[in-house]
Predict the structure of Inositol-1-monophosphatase.
Amino acid sequence: MTHTSSPVSSAELDEIYAFAIDLGKRAGKLLLDTVEKRIDGGSAGDSALLASEEKDSSVDIVTQTDEDVEAFIRTEIQSKYPSHKFLGEETYAKGSSRDYIIDSHPTWCVDPLDGTVNYTHLFPMFCVSIAFIHNHVPQIGIIHAPLQNQLFTSCTGRGAWLNQTHRLPLLQKPSIPPLPANAPSGCIFACEWGKDRRDTADGNMYRKVESFLNMAAEVGGREGRGGMVHGVRSLGSATLDLAYTAMGAFDIWWEGGCWEWDVAAGIAILQEAGGLVTTANPPEDPDTAPIEDVRLGSRLYLAIRPAGPSETETGREGQIRTVREVWRRVRNLDYSRPGS
Ligand code: IPD
């Protein structure tokens, strides 16, 4: 039996949500300030903001900004909620364990700067990503992409929002659009190249590329696997990919290799908006296998946007049909890890 910790009351959750929104706004402002300094400044101190160190490879980097913003967020959370646990990308990266360590306790799971490579190039798709997880469920998600002026927020039962004014998904009237009858055709497919660039025959990079080809190719191509998606997109930030899926801008997001802090807030927001999140890896029988709920630490994610009903199926049926169509076209990825 899974251990559960004592419930958080609705009033407490409201308070935590308000705190998290304010924290996300302030952390995003810190990111923006560093960008402004880089654009206007040029002093030795400002260029230190960009100094990056490699983690697992030359595309897996941490900048001083990642460190500073994580320290700010950690201090704020620890002084307001000293009994809550904190898991931040940069703190975790410094340890030697790669185990999945989130348990039933109230836990903050934070990526201070998702899209670090984008940030270093001033490609605007970078953000701070903050999730509050309790009893294994991401209950609050906050994503702030300050250069885009986009703040995504959600809390269980309180809806998912863009800039606190527009409910997600954005298209709701007269109803949320159904998924295309011939999905993945007609869908925007989002995916990421990720950081595993090993030139290994049939390794993750090759399996990803083969999957992308299958999704993109004309119907009838690729020995029947051609999906002829409407478009293929990569934002370079997993949590923003999920937020854009919650908006309805992306129909499908498929990715392997990122970590819980890259997805926790995005999953909270997408699920609250009515999206479906499951595993990237196709089961043995993609046509009939049950659709398992995403496991946060699995490093394998397939997300489908919120969908309304069509004349022939419910929104949920459309999402499940789309999951199976993706599974028929993608390869299994290998990102195993202990404890997830
Ligand atoms: C990365 C981004 C990217 C994903 C990588 C992540 P970071 O996060 O989310 O989209 O493909 O796997 O590590 O390093 O920029 O915080």
The chain has two domains: 10-167, 188-327. The domain at 188-327 is CATH 3.40.190.80 (D-Maltodextrin-Binding Protein; domain 2). The longest helix spans residues 10-40.
